[in-house]
Amino acid sequence: MKTSSKHKALAFLGAAFVLFIAIMFTACPNNAGGGGTPPTPPDVGSFEDAGDFVKIIPPTRGIVGLDPDYTLPGNEAKWKGVFIKDRTVKLSTYMLGKTEVTYKLWKEVYDWAVQPGHGYKFENPGQKGKDGTGSEYEPVTTISWRDCMVWCNAYTEKEKGIEQCVYRRNDDAVLKDATAEDDCKYAEPRMDKKGFRLPTAAEGEYAARWQGSDSTNAAQYGDVWLTKVNSASGAKDKWNTAETGEVAWYNGNSDSKTHPVGEKRKNALGLHDMSGNVQEWCWDWYKESPTDEDYVQDGIVIDPNGPDEGTSRVLRGGSWFHSAGYCSVGLRDSSSPNYRSTDLGFRLACRP
């Protein structure tokens, strides 16, 4: 028997009504199966490619410290990094160079800076890599922490104008003389400026460790996953495995020399040589356990840059000269501000 048009219409209207009720029930925020306010998405931070730099946007809620529950290359506090237990750190957005500063760039700026009229003075002229005989794309070495500060100011004046220079003397004049020990010792960074500068230890460590939502060989600090502190930057295994050699030059694969920047595999942020090749100067005065801070607001440590005074400055990353353990992303080494070495260079940071 055929179904009448009237019965077809009634059947269609009935089905439509059932579908309407189902849609309304699903959309209702107060029903038993609905959620009301949607869950807060993970705050893992992000990054953007910016040419020779990477723009790094850390989590807005900060990085919640952890105490490593795995074996480290050493037992001292200096192996545990700056994101330690009972300490939440919040970092502002910053830019970091994709590679260590090459001798080529160093020499271009150095030659400009020492010309008559520019007024810059350095402790050391720097050299290509380990002994000066290599490629100009190897990291600059044999430069002191003081040299780095003054060079950063020179590069800033050359490219962005002197008003954007970060490092200032007590009288707020731009620091231009690396041989002026007291001016360098008591210099204050003007972090509101957009000039080139050294990264802080916290900025360097975060950039070496960031993995976003990737939990591979990582630990969860709040919402964000950071590479375990016993591994090299970008590695998927701990320091004493073959994995370290894929991301870092160290005493075991370096042939006892520096190498052109960027040859090893980049890390999750697109940065090269965050472990190995040369150690890198940071801004901070060194203290083995970074617990007493002047930067706490509402229980969160905001943009820490080390203690107010000390005798040595932080070094990070290990080098061609060091064993694989020194490539571990948690290690904060140190040396005096006038120290220079064939395995020590630096990397640039700045505000966006």
Task: Give the secondary structure arrangement, pairings included.
Layout: H1 5-27, E1 46-50, E2 53-57, E3 63-64, E4 88-90, E5 94-97, H2 103-113, E6 127-128, E7 140-141, H3 145-160, E8 167-168, H4 181-185, E9 188-189, H5 201-209, E10 218-221, E11 224-227, H6 244-247, E12 279-285, E13 296-297, E14 300-302, E15 313-316, E16 332-335, E17 344-345, E18 349-350
Parallel strand pairs: 4-14, 12-17
Antiparallel strand pairs: 1-2, 2-5, 3-4, 5-18, 6-7, 8-9, 10-11, 12-15, 13-14, 15-16
Helix pairs in contact: 2-3
Give your account of this protein's structure.
This protein has 6 helices and 18 strands. It is of the alpha+beta class and 352 residues long. Strand 10 and strand 11 form a beta hairpin. The longest helix has 23 residues. The protein starts with a helix and ends with a strand.
Strand order of the largest sheet: 1-2-5-18
The total of beta strands comes to 18
Major sheet size, sense and barrel closure? 4 strands, antiparallel
Strand content: 15-25%
Count of helix runs? 6
Shape: globular
Helix fraction by DSSP (H/I, runs of at least 4): 10-25%
What is the CA–CA distance across the termini? 77 Å
- The average pLDDT value, as a whole number, equals 90
SS-based structural class? alpha+beta
Please state the CA-atom Rg, rounded to the nearest Å.
Answer: 26 Å
The H-and-E topology, N to C, reads as HEEEEEHEEHEHEHEEHEEEEEEE
Low-confidence stretches: 1-32
